[in-house]
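Researcher: Quick test of sequence recovery. Tokens follow.
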């Protein structure tokens, strides 16, 4: 027999902030998320020593998202990138690719 879910409000995907506001207002909330972790695109994934932003790359400290994060007490970190941010620290091999039948001239002759 399946257990019955009792909730005033059901939030389906993309609603972690909304679910938190509703719960703080006294509602019983059921939050359903497809991903293994909540937070949607507000995540950074790490693969070996590289970090990849899944979502936004910038956060306006005076904007609505920062205000909501502060209201909810959600910690976040970041800062202004340094001059070498985004720079490749190793030489990158340059590869030239030509389409079949192209002699390499800009006009294809």
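Model:
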């Amino acid at each position: 027999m399946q257990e019955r879910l009792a909730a005033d409000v059901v939030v389906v995907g993309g609603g972690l902030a909304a679910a938190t506001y509703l719960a703080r207002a006294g509602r019983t909330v059921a939050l359903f998320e497809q991903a293994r972790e909540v937070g949607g695109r507000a995540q950074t994934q790490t693969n070996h020593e590289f970090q990849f932003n899944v979502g936004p790359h910038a956060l306006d400290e005076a904007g609505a998202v920062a205000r909501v994060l502060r209201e909810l007490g959600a910690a976040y970190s970041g800062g202004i990138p340094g001059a070498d941010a985004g720079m490749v620290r190793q030489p990158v091999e340059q590869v030239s690719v030509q389409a079949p039948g192209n002699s390499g001239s800009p006009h294809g002759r």
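The mean pLDDT is 77.
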